[in-house]
Design brief:
This protein has no helices and five strands. The chain is mainly beta. The chain has one domain: Nucleic acid-binding proteins (OB fold (Dihydrolipoamide Acetyltransferase, E2P)), CATH 2.40.50.140. A hairpin with a 6-residue loop joins strand 2 (18-28) and strand 3 (35-45).
Length: 82
C-alpha cells in the first residue's frame, strides 16, 4: 500500500529530532457550498535536525511506522516550489 505524502508549513521545531507541520486543506461547506480551510498539525521525525530554526518553511512529510505516541510521519525534505 502506498504511503501518503502531505505538504505543509513548519510551525514548531522546539523538540529534538521532531518538527510540527501544519497541513491545510480546502473543503466545501455542506450547506453554504463555500470553500473553507481546515488544518491539522502532524508531528514529523527529523533525524538529522535539518529543519532546526526553519519555522515557516514549506516541507513534505511521508507516513511511516509509529515512532512514538504522537509521531508517525517523517520529513522528506523542503518543497522545491517554496
Amino acid at each position: 500500500m502506498p504511503k501518503r505524502i502531505l505538504e505543509g508549513t513548519i510551525v514548531s521545531d522546539k523538540m529534538d529530532k521532531t518538527i510540527v507541520v501544519k497541513v491545510e486543506r480546502r473543503v466545501q461547506h455542506p450547506i453554504y457550498k463555500k470553500f473553507i480551510r481546515k488544518s491539522k498539525k502532524y508531528h514529523a521525525h527529523d533525524e538529522a535536525n535539518a529543519f532546526k530554526g526553519k519555522v515557516g518553511e514549506i516541507v513534505r512529510i511521508r507516513e511511516c511506522r509509529p515512532l512514538s505516541r504522537t509521531k508517525s510521519w517523517e520529513v522528506l525534505g523542503a518543497d522545491a516550489k517554496a
